[in-house]
Every structure is written in C-alpha cells, then in structure tokens.
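Run log // design_07
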C-alpha cells in the first residue's frame, strides 16, 4: 500500500471569509504530528485480502442491502463491498465502497495486527492537512489544484461512475483523489460547532454525543457537481465537511488509512 509521509506542522483549519457552510468556521490554528497517509483510497483488491483473511462480514452483508446511485439514492438488496455505484461488480483497482465506518475501522485493526504497525482512519485535522499539501501547500481550493478537472472525478466529468484510483493529478504530497471520486470516512465524531472548541494540538474530534452521533466524512464524490454563482464547487472544497451514521453504507463512501510512526 503506497503511503505518503506528512511532516507535521501548524496550519489554519477551516475558513472564516466567503464560507458557504457554517460548520467550517471559525478558522483556527492546529498543530499536527508526523504521520503517513495512503496515497490512494483503499481499493477493492486490498479490502478483498482483508475479507478473505478474516471471513469478516461487512455491515452491508449483515443487513443484506446498501444504497446505489440511480439518479437518486436507492436501497438495493444483496449489494456490498464487491459492487460499484450502480450495483455491478466493481473493478479491483477502484476504491472500495458500500463500507460502513465500522467496516473501515475493522480493516485498520486487521492491518495493524497483520503488519505490527499502528494504522487507523485519519482524524479530520490530519485529513485536511494532507489534502492541503502539508508544509508544501500551494493554498489550492481543491486538493492539488484550483482547476477541479485536473484533480477530481465529480459530477461534471465522471459520468456518475467511480474511477480507478490515481488517474487524476496528485496534490503537493503526491496524494491522489482527496477531492472527488469517493468521499472518505474520518476518525472523528461530527459536531457542527467543534471548531469553536477544538484543541490546538492534534485534535481528534468531540466525544460522542447523542445529538451528533455521526462520523465525519471528507472529500465528496463522483456525483457532486454543485456550482455557486462564482463557479466554485463549494461542497468539493478541501475545507468542506460532511457526516453520516457509522453504520451507513453507500456507493460513494470509502476510506484511506494513516500510519502513525513510533
């Protein structure tokens, strides 16, 4: 699994001015440690090794259904990690989808046990820092460019299909697809007001709250194509936040992993 080294440092997380989304404010300073992050989202082939090694049953396999895209979201029976956005069998070099937050955590735990390393999902702060290019940031709107077509599969160019990982231009840290293609689970619980109370050093999100019992999702997907009046894809910006129930499975949510060195 190709990994990119992310040298720790300080950065400004969120945005005050021109933000269309209340949960991206206020801007606040965050200090991040060193870590490695997957250059690509976890692929179907990589997830298959985990399944075959453990006989793990994913959330979608247990419930017998998942959500596919058919001009709108629809539950379809017998859809799981083997399938793509339309319910057909997925290509092995495409990001795995139809996986819940719990499935992603189980994969990280298996990878840690198998390799002896410390793997987990990225925190929201780690994800944003890496997407911005870390210490090599060029302050792009999208991860790797201000021209979204250079770096992302999204609603205007994807034909509403998931694409193999690594086909678009990488960002400053040689990381691919952090904007578009599939959205990505992060470690943190979601709270729309968390940026107002976030600690400065290595934030890991708020404690679980019954009112906000959802996990953070970042990066958006192959469907998203919303344009504002100034021709900006606001929901595809690096700073944009999303969330969902940790048992949710859909054709547009996958994940990538981080490795924490000793």
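design_07 sequence
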């Amino acid at each position: 699994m190709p990994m990119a080294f992310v040298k720790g440092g300080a950065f400004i997380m969120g945005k005050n001015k021109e933000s269309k989304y209340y949960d991206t404010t206020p801007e606040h300073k965050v200090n991040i440690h060193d870590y490695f992050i997957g250059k690509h989202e976890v692929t179907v082939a990589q997830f298959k090794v985990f399944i075959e090694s453990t006989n793990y049953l994913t959330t979608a396999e247990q419930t017998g259904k998942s959500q596919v895209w058919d001009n709108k979201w629809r539950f379809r029976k017998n859809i799981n990690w083997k399938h793509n956005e339309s319910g057909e069998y997925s290509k092995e070099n495409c990001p795995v989808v139809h996986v819940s937050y719990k499935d992603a955590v189980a994969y990280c735990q298996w990878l840690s046990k198998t390799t002896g390393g410390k793997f987990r999902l990225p925190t929201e702060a780690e994800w944003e820092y890496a997407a911005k290019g870390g210490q090599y940031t060029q302050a792009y709107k999208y991860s790797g460019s201000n021209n979204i077509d250079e770096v992302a599969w999204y609603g205007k160019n994807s034909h509403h299909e998931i694409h193999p990982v690594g086909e678009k231009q990488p960002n400053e840290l040689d990381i691919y697809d952090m904007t578009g293609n599939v959205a990505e689970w992060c470690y943190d619980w979601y709270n729309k007001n968390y940026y107002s109370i976030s600690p400065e050093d290595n934030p890991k999100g708020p404690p679980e709250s019954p009112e906000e019992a959802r996990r953070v999702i970042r990066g958006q997907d192959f469907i998203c194509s919303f344009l504002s009046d100034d021709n900006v894809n606001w929901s595809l910006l690096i700073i944009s936040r999303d969330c969902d129930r940790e048992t949710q499975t859909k054709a547009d949510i996958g994940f990538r992993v981080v490795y924490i060195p000793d």
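DSSP finds five helices and twelve strands in the chain.
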